[in-house]
Write a structure and sequence with these properties.
89 residues, mainly alpha, 3 helices, 66% helix, elongated
Length: 89
């Protein structure tokens, strides 16, 4: 959404309502999306520490509800992994 007038993105780097330059914001949102995808892949590969770091970094750049959920799941998995490591002899 446009930070100036709250209009939705419409595939242009200029806001269709107020004319604000959205290029930088769109780039940050796309970067955060790529980090979330990489976090999901890291979970699939069993690298929960990397997934947690990527999900957290993505949320710091561009918050979203799906990102929050991914961050919570990856944090939980990382904590569960640490507990399993402590229990192993």
């Amino acid at each position: 959404m446009c930070p100036v007038c709250q209009a939705r993105f419409r595939g242009s780097t200029e806001c269709s309502r107020c004319g604000a330059d959205l290029g930088t914001i769109m780039g940050l949102a796309a970067g955060a999306w790529r980090m979330r995808e990489a976090a999901r892949q890291a979970i699939a590969e069993g690298d929960v520490a990397r997934a947690r770091a990527l999900a957290t970094q993505a949320q710091e750049i561009c918050r979203s509800a799906a990102g929050r959920d991914l961050e919570m799941v990856s944090s939980w998995l990382a904590g569960a992994s640490l507990e399993m490591d402590k229990a192993s002899p």
